[in-house]
Amino acid sequence: MSTLIISIELLLGAVLARCIYLFYFHPLSRYPGPLLARVTNLWKLSAYLSGEHHIVEQQLHQKYGNVIRTGPTSLSISSLSGFEAIYGFNKAIEKGDFYNFGRDAHTSGGSVFSARSEADHRVRRLKTVGPALTMAKIAAYEPIISKNVSVFLSKLAAAQASVEAGSIINIAPIVHRFTFDTIVKVIYGDSLSSQPYTSIRGADGLVEAFKGMSKYAWATSMVPWLSWLMSSRPMIALTRRPTKDTEGNFVGLTAFVNRTRDILLAHPDKTLHSSQPSIAKNYLQVPQDDSKHMLPDEMWRECFNFTFAGPGSTAAALTTILYQLGTEHGRPWQARIRAESSSHPPNPNSPSVLLAVIKETMRLNAPFPTAFPRTITHGAENAIPDLPAPLPVGTLVSANTYILGHSKAIWGADAEAWKPERWLVPERDRKALEDKFVVFSKGSRGCIGREISLIMLSEAVVGVLGQWKIDATGDLRGKAFLEMQYSECEVSLTKVNDISVGGAQIS
Q: Helix, strand or coil for residue 266?
């Protein structure tokens, strides 16, 4: 018994000593923040699971300044110079163990998203972008996107027809199924399904499964011991049990994983012989002696990574754009977009009223309201400007795009106001705005799906406004996890029968 008591006393003493060190003597003890964050990451996990961690973090920056301590070894930065230092071109700031959820537990194989070092990322980016995501390749996907926009519009029409004229409908789930089906079709082509994937048998609950997967993968990474526990063999066996229907058929995420592995690993000929262009087909066509060639499992991981990251963030963006256009301040912009699109087809690479609305909405409503942490390694101790001392190796540093998008220091006194007109300025001034627009991140690790996302957003917005006038008469509700997950976007759609070009009123 005495041995047990001594052991407990020693353990409590060690914990107390550790807490004292973290509170008063750790190199990060000079930075302000929540008291609990000094000794544990559980504070950060609790804020994250509340679905409002971006608001909590924003309030902390408003209280304490540009640099706050968000964990025993982590800092949050809210300055533009800090963001550029973290996510720019510094090769010694890497993606550390936080991203192990995106790496194979046995081989450490990952994707372009989870690549640890700049060198590894450069190789993976060449393999993913070169064969399938150049502007010429993306142009070949546009007919696929247009076809799916038509399906999206028909589903909105059916939803509106199911209620009385002028009644509210919730478009959030319809938007998310559209973005999922479109991106899946662009990635895998017709070989996965000739129909929109969410409409086939066995796809029930798939969109929600992906939302849950992103939520909890990110959550467990916030607490190292929890991440280790969830990646252990027993927990993997427990949490990744295949799901089946009453007839024994695989359904949901299990069915999706099996089908995508089948067309890429077991029967790639299904994809190669498809007449429809797709990202997967372009990868499969790379010769084996080409430096951009990927092994089958590597190819599957990259394609699955796109499926994991793209639909949710694009759905969040499109949901907020349509809702914002339906508000009192947004409704006049509907007519301007209609007038513009009647003479110029949407082009996400050219300045326009449409692009101004898209960017201003994404600035205020970041699709990823979550900070993506990076790890300080040797050589990056002084990489973050305006800090009082070098950062210790192993420090996690991050900057939240939501907070930067709302920063008055960056965007001016009207930072909280939705003003698309701020983007309708001469090219020199617009370049300064682009430098502050961090929604798609910065540097070599910037979003590689940016162009596809902007095409989808542009075509969907123009398509909706070509048929309806939007009124945001209900609520916009959602929670912030890895991506912003909206459950409700209540609007009413009124059919547009007569459109006058030139900005005149719509009857």
A: helix
